[in-house]
Amino acid sequence: EPPVIYCITCGCKIKRQQVYYTTPETNVADIKGSWCHTCFSESKGEKIVLEGSSHRKSDLVKKKHEVDEEEPWVACDHCQGWVHQICGMFNKGRNNHGQHFLCPDCLVRSVETGERQRMTVRPQAMLEARDLPVSNLSRYLEHHLAAALMQERGARAAQQGVKPLDVPTAEKLSVRVVNNVVKKCETKPRYHDAFSSSAGYPPEFPYRQRVVMLFQNLDGVDVCLFVMYVQEYGPECP
């Protein structure tokens, strides 16, 4: 399936096989935006506005929403099998061409046969999830998560008639707030023009964006189990 694209003006989803206009790949301002055919046609003049900056309509690239983006692959140098780069934890941008790449299956087999040794000491440059900065919110969530797991573990132990320590539970969990910034949500131009005078709608709504992630360390690898994106609007937003 092609990626989901929304029109920057009306906010509607650009349907598949629909013509739209987008900023060129060589955009020096590094601000990306797309417009549906209707909003592009209704925009009068030679320029169109994107996040406070003007772009010449003639510089926009006309496209058809039909491109399927494929996950990049990488070949294992041992079994010659192919895996997704993200699944094999292969970083193309930081790859050293002088080193071989082993897929996860070959890597596990080489450890089991003794050809490779399991890493016991993590290099200082390889940080873990628990090394990420801690905040009051992350401490609060970790504390209540541990308490809830302990209570649930005790309930299962009582049901099975065993000690709580004999009941398996989730361990090595880390909660971190990886993003905490103040942003603004701009009112769509046509919506603002229609309701600004009657309802007093402001041109923008400030909010705080947070991204909370839950990690579990499994065999020395931090696995992301849950991600929550939050937009917090205060009393200054009507």
Which keywords apply here?
flat; three-stranded antiparallel sheet; alpha+beta
Order of helices and strands: EEHEEEEEHHEHEE
Tell me the β content. Answer: 25-35%
Instruction: Write down how many β-strands occur, each being a DSSP E stretch of 2 or more residues.
Output: 10
Main sheet attributes: strand count, strand direction, barrel closure: 3 strands, antiparallel
Radius of gyration: 25 Å
Instruction: Give the mean pLDDT.
Output: 85
Shape: flat
- Walk across the major sheet and give the strand order: 2-1-5
Which bin fits the share of residues in helices?
Answer: 10-25%
Runs in which pLDDT lies below 50 for 5 or more consecutive residues are: none
- Would you tell me the structural class of the helices and strands? alpha+beta
Distance between the termini: 38 Å
Q: Total helix count?
A: 4
Question: What does this 3D model show about the protein?
Answer:
This protein is of the alpha+beta class. The chain is built from 4 helices and 10 strands; from the N terminus they run ββαβββββααβαββ. It has helices at 37-42, 104-112, 136-160, 189-199; strands at 19-22, 34-36, 47-50, 53-56, 61-64, 73-75, 82-84, 173-186, 204-218, 221-232. The mean pLDDT is 85.
Explain briefly what this protein structure is.
The chain is an alpha+beta fold. The chain has helices spanning 37-42, 104-112, 136-160, 189-199; strands spanning 19-22, 34-36, 47-50, 53-56, 61-64, 73-75, 82-84, 173-186, 204-218, 221-232. The model has no long low-confidence stretch (mean pLDDT 85).
